[in-house]
Amino acid sequence: GLITMKKLLVIGLALVASIGYGATLQELENQCRQKEEAEACYKAALSYVDGGNISETDRKDGIVEAPQDFAKARFFMEEAYELGSSDATVIFGTMLMEGIGGPVDIPNGELLLGEACENGDSYTCSQLGKKYTKGEGSLKKSLKNAAKYYELGCKLGDGDSCLNAGRQYYDGSGVLQSYVKAKEYFAKACEADIESGCSQYAELNKKGY
Fold it and tell me: Residue 23 and residue 121: Cα distance in Å, rounded?
């Protein structure tokens, strides 16, 4: 959970546009609550995730000193999402699915991550596929759902998603077994420079599929 949040924080920082450089936490919260500024809510949330361990680059991105508090981070991330911040969608969805800062909410968490995936976030598609492959935490394992997200991720150009979709068709895991489809997905994985995709494509090609 915390490792995932740290990764998402890095992604979030890369997406943040500069707002109120030098603003205090209180000012961000006021901008969020009173002026309903989505970016202020988002930055307040990231500040609570980071817990004061911020660099000069973080400061320039609008992250401010704050005690680490995942409950408050979740509150402000939800506010950011509801005010239309697309950047907040993945992080808030992950918080819901993993129970970060509040109770686990798998249905709504998947809804948000699925929304991000379908809107073109291939990394999120891949991560959802992996979550369903393993059945993490209170999320029940579902190879059918895993295949759905891997195929979406592959369409968006994610090589790992292509590889994993190929493996599911190869094994008939959660999908109707098909060496032909497996070969197609392995070919796409190979095109994305996934070495094992190349080797598995070559194996099926040698067998005449």
Answer: 30
Give the span between the Cα atoms of 156 and 150, in whole angstroms: 10
The Cα–Cα gap between 209 and 139 comes to: 35
Task: List Cβ neighbours of 139 (8 Å cut-off, separation of 6 or more).
Answer: 97, 106, 131, 132
Query: DSSP secondary-structure letter at 102?
Result: S
Q: What pLDDT, on the 0 to 100 scale, is given for residue 35?
A: 86
Question: Which stretch of DSSP H or E encloses residue 25?
Answer: helix 25-33
Q: What is the mean pLDDT of the chain?
A: 86
For 56-73, how does the pLDDT look when each residue is reduced to its tens digit (9 = 90+)?
777 777 778 888 899 999
Q: Whole-angstrom Cα distance, residue 110 to residue 89? A: 11
What are the tens digits of pLDDT across the range 143-168?
Answer: 999 999 999 999 999 999 999 999 99
Residue type, 93: G
Which segments of 61-178 does DSSP mark as H helices, in order? 70-82, 86-98, 106-118, 122-134, 143-155, 159-171
Length of the chain: 209
